[in-house]
Amino acid sequence: MIHFHVITLFPEAIEPYLTSSILGRAIEKKLIKISYYDPKKYAVGKHKRVDQRPYGGGPGMVLEPTAVLKAADAALKRISRAPLTGISRGALEILFFSTDGKQFDEEMAKKLAKKRDILLICGRYEGVDARVPKILKAKPVSVGPYVLTGGELPAASVIDAVARFIPGVLGKIESLERNRVSSPEVYTRPDVLVWKKKKYKVPEVLKSGHHANINKWKQKLD
What we know:
2 domains; 8 helices; elongated
């Protein structure tokens, strides 16, 4: 089982997705586990703020380091208390979402699927104080050449992609599909779709039962 530990100000933003459908069943079967750590619960100071103005000026606010580090510390203590684990760097991966991080891809997902604990740090606003990933020795990761308002969607994407490589998460049909030639186009019933007086047919090759020709057709689309 892989235990995902998500540091986020807004767990409610992604929890419904991660507890639905295939991932929800994986949680029920104890193939994966997802825990959330909200920095707001670890805020310090008189006003319990988790954001502050950036040094050097600039727009927006920055997540202050203490609350995020305390949230991370809570996760790491939980990991160290887990039976038969302790904190082994080989079994633990800490990821920090950053636009200049390494591009997340399927190869990275496969490697992460071999870990026992994955700690995901989700930024918000203008980001997280740069000392946080340095202290935690977190790997910067990017899910694409664009900027989002927070790290929750990247975290959900990583969890979803990694979970697919955990044995038992996907059903028999999905597992077989992963080993077959994929295609950007897929079709199902009916053979002929009539929509606003126009007919849209399924390509004949897909109904032929000739798998070699079907794979050639799929490869041409890639």
